[in-house]
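Standup notes, structure subgroup. Blocker cleared on the cytidine-5'-diphosphate input:
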Amino acid sequence: MQQTSPEIGGMGHSIKRKEDSRFIQGRGNYVDDVRLPGMVYGQMVRSPFAHARLKSISTEKAKQLPGVLAVITGEDLAKANLAWMPTLFFDKQMVLATGKVLFQSQEVAFIVAEDRYTAADAAELVEVEYEELPVLVDPHKATDPSSPILREDREEKSNHIFHWEVGDKAATDKAFQNAAVKASVHAVFQRCHPAPLETCGCVADFNSATGKLTIYMTSQAPHAHRTLFALVGGIPEQNIRVVSPDIGGGFGNKVPIYPGYVCSVVASLTLGRPVKWIETRSENLQSTGFARDYHMTAELAADGNGKIQAMRVKTLADHGAFNAAAQPTKFPAGLFSICTGAYDYPNAFCEVDGVYTNKAPGGIAYRCSFRVTEAAYLIERAVDVLAQQLKIDPVELRRKNFIRPEKFPYPSPLGWSFDSGNYEAAMNLALEKINYQELRKEQAEKRAKGEFMGIGISSFVEIVGAGPAHTFDIAGIKMFDSAEIRVHPTGKAICRMGTKSQGQGHETTYAQIVAQELGIPAADVVVEEGDTDTAPYGLGTYASRSTPVSGAATAVAARKIREKAKKIAAHLLECSEEDLEWEPGKFFVKGAPSKSKTIQDIAFAAYTNMPAGMEAGLEAVDYYDPPNLTFPFGTYICIVDIDKGTGEVKVRRFIAVDDCGNVINPMIVDGQIHGGLTEGLAIAFMQQIDYDESGNVQGGSFMDYLLPTAVETPHWETDKTCTPSPHHPLGAKGVGESPNVGSPAAFVNAVVDALAHLGVQHIDMPITPWKVWAILKEKGVVS
Ligand code: CDP
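Run returned:
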């Protein structure tokens, strides 16, 4: 089949020419604002087919278009041994297709032209001849002998990627044999996409005079990306500078390396000009890292009183065409083994199989600490199903099974050591705020009148802050993180970090940590991230690791500075260090508070009047390797009303009680929770990247992949309990992803609770009005 106009969009959204919106990007993406002299533009040519052999690619017509500078194909890259690149999970991925394409929208050729419009026009002149092949979209059929083998490049002629298991299978099976009650749920956590408003992009600028390659890039992990460019591309690392200032939203989408970045670098090296590539909205949704796509079965065994004794989990993970999961390498299923949740039972066994299908690659941690969202959703759904089966109130079942506060540090049956927790306190606060007993009465009254109201509870536990480095690495690089603080002579400071904010307010919160530890006003502290030429090496920001790791590094670096400051203060006050006491901002002589030196006095002296033999300057760096992860938690309660006539679910109230230990900035934490809950709402009710049987993407634009607006978003009520982390220098735990991890189960539990008396035990997300209406019809409620 000859395809000359490679337009994509499974729902028949053909892309129009210049007047359409493909070049309109959300603001806040600094990379799209980069304008360099002589800059040219890159444009991908993409496959319209999900599985097809590439018979031929003719680029002649495109090359003849005035303004076109180069057309790069997979064959061209193959000559430089760059047609394939390693993924973050030790698989390999085609940069530009050679031989065949494996998913719709896969990158086939890269055009470089003087302007964006010419590049887009030239893309339409690339003639690609495809021979369609049978398509595999159902992960359950991946290992059927009748299914096509997708990855001909692999030695293993199978679509099976990995089998991973953890826990004591024999003990768990035994507990199930002896159990009075068994409950099970099969839950699909559908394929989602982080859908940052600002898409991915870069400007690669190779300067042939200096030999330096600068890459302005939407990167959540600039240092790791620079190292990978150096290792894979063979460019000396000191000659690469990755700059990632305001990169727009990330949510995990900007952790992997995508073909567009690589092609831009290759084009800049070849042409000696800066090459900009910015994805369109549809390209982002259709081809960059997806999230979830976990097909999970959980079973719980309990005694007749509802005391849980064991959990058994079997999961099928659809990774698409390449295993491009962005997660620690020892964990093929990420930290999914947190799936035992907030409950205390001795036996658990969890197994996961990963498979290839004809879909975009990924498996990224979308506002999630590597598959924790799937895990929290599964256990919180399973507990509700067990409660339904036992006819016990879901609150009481949770209360009966929570890990008690005195049991921390708690060794989970799947191998984690939970640092601290008080799950019942968080649940009690949420129940009190929502007035739970009254709501149950109201629900009974409404049911008697034939109305549908539901109450959904989710008491989730999280696991965030990877390292420790002995267990955690990404692509071999250990998962520590860093902070470098330099106090200037006038007592102002700069704090440079290995992390990379995408709007989480690091500029504020790291400055606050310096202020708290050193007494320098936060307004006097500049925080810098995202430039590999200046920032200390770090693994970047995703999976709520910034506060647990770099927040700790900031505190430790500040304390190192305070140690030196004390010596200088003793010198200035002519006393011994033992005679000094600290209060934020100054050292004073014990018993004589008027004899003091402020941190500003001390900073000045560090450059002008230091003690004999002391190095000048007042600065410190810390590469922090956390001793454990942090385990934030919370209880979310959602109240829904269902309109019988339309199946529409209205979220009447939602209360989120979070516990992330000591809070650095309550307003920022609340903002994180509001944002994450809104994303959770969208996942529960609106979003899915689906495929038809030919592999056409069904959610490839914002017409189909819905983003919640203020209209759909309810008022979020938030509160906190505080259970500090015992091992974090500030007692803080991460929080950014908690609302996305904890909320999907609260929404789904609420809808199922509203319909439970009809015998409904589970509904897969997204819970659309149509799905609910179909259930009401099936149950004879509406006709
Ligand atoms: O890694 P990421 O920044 O996405 O997540 P995080 O560590 O959970 O932090 C998100 C934002 O919330 C940052 O600005 C943190 O400093 C802030 N935060 C806080 O103020 N107190 C906490 N206990 C946790 C996070």
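Discussed briefly. Residues 1-27 have pLDDT under 50 and may be disordered.
Next: hand off to the docking folks.
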